[in-house]
Amino acid sequence: MTLRAVLLALLFAATALPARAAESVLTLTPRPGVTLRVLVDRPAAPVGSVVLMAGGDGTLDLDAQGNIGSGLKGNHLVRTRADYVKAGYAVFVPDIASDQRGTRGYRFTNDYANDVAMVIAEARKVAPPVAIVGTSRGALSVAAVFTKQSAVRSDAAVISSGVLLGNNGGSASTMGDMSRINVPVMLLRHRFDSCRESAPADADRFKTMLTGAPKVDIVTLDGGGPRGSTADPCGAAHYHGFYGIDDQAVAATVQWLRANMRR
Length: 263
Prior knowledge:
This protein has one domain: Alpha/Beta hydrolase fold, catalytic domain (Rossmann fold), CATH 3.40.50.1820. Helices cover 27% and strands 17% of the residues. It has helices at residues 3-16, 76-79, 81-86, 110-126, 138-147, 202-207, 246-260; strands at 24-28, 36-41, 48-53, 89-94, 130-135, 156-160, 185-190, 216-221. It has an eight-stranded mixed sheet, sandwiched between helices. Strand 1 (24-28) and strand 2 form a beta hairpin. The longest helix is centred in the middle third of the chain and has 17 residues, at 110-126. Keywords: Signal.
């Protein structure tokens, strides 16, 4: 093959790939003197946006360059964020606001709900429609934006391995009136999730509370497995975090969004 042919082949390969910008950091000011950093990525022509709400304490410790300084780097939604970009969605991964660091129960406050709503509003400017996707304790974030404020809402909601009816009092069902969730909802679970706060059967009971949602689908996955015998059953490296089947979890979510979140 001639040098010219090689260069032409490389040029064709480069132009055949969907263009995308590098990750960037969006800094919002939800309250005077308060900053909220959001990790943002997007394809060249997004079909919509997803706001990905991590589990755990929700603190990413994002710096100005977009580096994640906390252990949530391995969280299921955080580690798969680029896969949603590849699927055509602009991705927004928010940290928690600076005035909420080190506080307890912040997800239950109106300020937090307004913070999440502000991120949804920014996502809508970039690429509507917008879905909010929360995993594990991120289920509280999804519930908050519907039960604690009403100014800005997403067009669909997805909860994976959600803390829905948890035993410690901090569950989505304690956030308020679940009938205020008035968009299509997908509840994604792993058949073998052994975390006591996200039992697979909880999804069936939680579904009955979503009387305001026009549609609620429960999707169950299996496969994958813990990363070693000492993996935390409620952690990202266990069935709870879809460890080993990230591709299936993302594909199931994307397929559902395409069918249920309309422009």
